[in-house]
């Protein structure tokens, strides 16, 4: 059995006396879609921030293809194959769609300042390659009609798609999606669900996502990892996690969880 693409072992994050994430262990295999769920304040975004290098873990180990990411500078995470979208859009609102997607190609540019001034040879080749890749992503995400529009003039759903395109432009092995469908209507959500599956199936990119939309999570995830108060409740197949009493309690409260665990009145009457 091959080693996981991403592996978390005992990952913990403390802020003073507050433990935001407590000894979380999980993994993402190549070709998997894994979702992290939990109520607000469960520690999901803190965990994502550690995986993407925004925050260092207090304890534990995060590995990508066996490499300890603690030894990698945060700005180099993209070079090792981690791409990310953000819960709050982080686009250049005054730039066009093409401009924003090209930002994701910047790390591949090797051109020196002198070469850039003359714009000949390698600088020209790199720019052509970057623009070709940007156009491939635009076609993949079906945003050809807005490619030259200023991002700030687009709808929220369109901007989310542009941010997804910018993350894909980094050529990730692992794509982190932070509430990618938050604020979207049903049609937009269904489009994103289709793109996520295509990213995995056609581009060969593994996906780890935080998501509150349980329909999306249960429909497209291979595995689900449930958190509450920074700690793992359970992990497994979507149907197994959805039916777990601890997950039901985290979302609905202890009384609701107990009520769901009891037989229906008709069944109790028949049993008697």
From TrEMBL:
Transmembrane segments: none annotated. Gene3D superfamilies: P-loop containing nucleotide triphosphate hydrolases. Pfam families: ABC_tran (PF00005), BCA_ABC_TP_C (PF12399). GO terms for molecular function: ATP binding; ATP hydrolysis activity. GO terms for cellular component: plasma membrane. The keyword ATP-binding applies. Residues 6-254 form the ABC transporter domain. It comes from Albimonas pacifica. The keyword Amino-acid biosynthesis does not apply. Keywords: ATP-binding, Nucleotide-binding, Transport. This is Amino acid/amide ABC transporter ATP-binding protein 1, HAAT family. SUPFAM superfamilies: P-loop containing nucleoside triphosphate hydrolases.
């Amino acid at each position: 059995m091959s080693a996981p693409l991403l592996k978390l072992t005992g990952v913990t994050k403390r802020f003073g006396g507050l433990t935001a994430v407590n000894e979380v262990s999980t993994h993402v295999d190549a070709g998997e879609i894994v979702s992290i769920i939990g109520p607000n304040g469960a520690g999901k975004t803190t965990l994502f921030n550690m995986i993407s290098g925004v925050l260092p873990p207090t304890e534990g180990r995060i590995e990508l293809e066996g490499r300890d990411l603690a030894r990698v500078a945060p700005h180099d995470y993209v070079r090792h194959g981690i791409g990310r979208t953000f819960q709050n859009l982080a686009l250049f609102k005054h730039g066009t769609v093409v401009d924003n997607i090209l930002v994701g190609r910047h790390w591949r540019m090797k051109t020196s300042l002198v070469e850039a001034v003359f714009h000949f040879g390698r600088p020209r080749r790199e720019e052509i390659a970057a623009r070709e890749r940007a156009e491939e992503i635009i076609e993949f995400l079906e945003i050809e009609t807005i490619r030259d529009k200023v991002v700030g003039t687009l709808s929220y759903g369109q901007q989310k798609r542009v941010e997804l395109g910018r993350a894909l432009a980094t050529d990730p092995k692992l794509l982190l999606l932070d509430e990618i469908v938050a604020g979207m209507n049903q049609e937009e959500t269904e489009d994103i669900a289709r793109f996520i599956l295509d990213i995995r199936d056609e581009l060969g990119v593994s996906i780890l996502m935080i998501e509150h939309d349980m329909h999306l999570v249960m429909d497209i995830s291979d595995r689900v990892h449930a958190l509450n108060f920074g700690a793992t409740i359970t992990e497994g197949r979507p149907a197994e996690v959805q039916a777990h009493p601890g997950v039901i309690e985290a979302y609905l409260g202890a009384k609701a969880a107990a009520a769901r665990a009891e037989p229906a009145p008709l069944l109790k009457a028949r049993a008697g």
